[in-house]
Specification:
Elements (H helix, E strand, L loop, with lengths): L1 H13 L5 E5 L9 E4 L15 H5 L7 E2 L10 E7 L3 E9 L19 E7 L7 E7 L4 E6 L19 E7 L11 E9 H5 L14 E10 L2 E4 L2 E4 L1 E2 L2 E2 L3 E4 L15 E5 L16 H16 L13 E9 L2 E9 L4 E6 L4 E5 L4 E3 L1
Length: 358
């Protein structure tokens, strides 16, 4: 009889409380890349050449990686940036043996051609962001989302960057399948004023050390020929899936998860060489909060939404190997809310993906 009692006691001590879940989100954690953008005093000519001295002094990003961060693309892509009081300048180089495009109408769905894309979230709040797409014909699609598609966001095509300047330089021959090309370049002067309008207060020109969220994508299609012209390739009547190559990996085939975009840090110096990136020590925790949000909206924690308002659930969250943080889920009238506490702050995230420091 004594031995049976001993076994029961050991079993109860070793198990977790019944009201605590264990969730591993480590595979969804993204530590975004960063770029420190220096200022320019040059009179910038937007011609696709980027031959001003300040461009020569600006550093390139790493070569782009597949959007999931696994596969090395077959063609290299890299970009660099500058800024002044009026514009954010972006220059991109894209290796390409077959340069083609057929979309010429502004605000067409440009990613149906091979294209280069810019995503900018000045407030850094994973909402209110602009997107610019451009193809080898220098056709532009600029649009705005007040929130990502995952929470009901709808693109606003009327959001036009009227002062946008863009140019494409083709190193080869455009739309000629009879030869091999080398690369095409994109140079953009993106007006700051409409981007500043997307910031939280104060809506001012970037200060020293200010950080925005930004990412770049390159869409690349397998091509075929029809009547001697380039077309997107089909097999069995369906278009082959496009390749998505990005600067800062998303870990999923979805650019519209802004919390994973890279950091753009502004300096008023002419060189970023001696400028230190301001690191957010709580970034892994914030990423864990967004991972819980995504899992609850459409993943394996969706079952928590079946509970009545007021339901409370403790969760042990593994966000890195050997690292765990405690979180609480609460079912609210509007949806749900998670809270996570660190030594530095307590964070909450709700059903709309809005992260706050409490």
């Amino acid at each position: 009889m004594k031995s049976i009692f001993f076994i029961i006691i050991i079993f109860c001590v070793s198990c977790k409380p019944i009201d605590t879940l264990s969730v591993d989100v480590s595979g969804a954690i993204v530590i975004p890349k960063h770029y420190i953008v220096s200022t320019t005093k040059d009179d910038m000519t937007i011609d696709g050449n980027a031959d001003e001295l300040s461009w020569e002094n600006a550093s390139f990003t790493d070569n782009f990686i597949d959007i999931e961060g696994i596969i090395t693309p077959k063609f290299n892509t890299k970009t660099k940036m500058l800024w002044d009081d009026d514009y954010l300048y972006v220059y991109a180089e894209m290796e390409e043996p077959h340069i083609w495009g057929n979309l010429r109408q502004r605000d067409t769905v440009i990613f149906y051609n091979n294209d280069f894309e810019v995503f900018i979230n000045p407030a850094g709040d994973a909402a209110r962001y602009g997107e610019i797409e451009i193809n080898a014909l220098n056709t532009v699609w600029d649009l705005y989302l007040s929130k990502p598609y995952r929470t009901g966001g709808k693109p606003d095509f009327n959001w036009n960057l009227d002062s946008l300047k863009s140019a494409v330089k083709v190193h080869g021959t455009l739309n000629n399948p009879n030869d091999l090309d080398s690369l095409w370049t994109v140079e953009l002067a993106i007006p700051l004023k409409p981007l500043i309008a997307l910031k939280n207060n104060p809506k001012t020109t970037p200060k020293e050390g200010e950080q925005w969220r930004i990412n770049f994508s390159r869409v690349e299609w397998e091509y075929g020929l029809k009547d001697g012209k380039y077309v997107r390739k089909k097999e069995h009547g369906n278009y082959l899936k496009e390749h998505n190559w990005v600067w800062s990996p998303q870990k999923v085939i979805n650019m519209h998860e802004p919390e994973k975009w890279g950091f753009l840090q502004f300096t008023k110096e002419k060189s970023s060489k001696d400028i230190t990136f301001i690191k957010d020590e709580d970034m892994p925790i914030k990423q864990a909060a967004f991972a819980l949000f995504r899992k609850t909206r459409s993943g394996n924690l969706k079952h928590l939404l079946e509970h009545d308002t007021g339901f409370d659930q403790g969760i042990d969250v593994t966000y890195q190997k050997g690292k765990t943080i405690s979180a609480r889920f609460q079912k609210t009238n509007l949806g749900f809310e998670y809270t996570l506490a660190t030594q530095n702050a307590t964070y909450s995230i709700d059903q709309n993906g809005i992260l706050k420091s409490l």
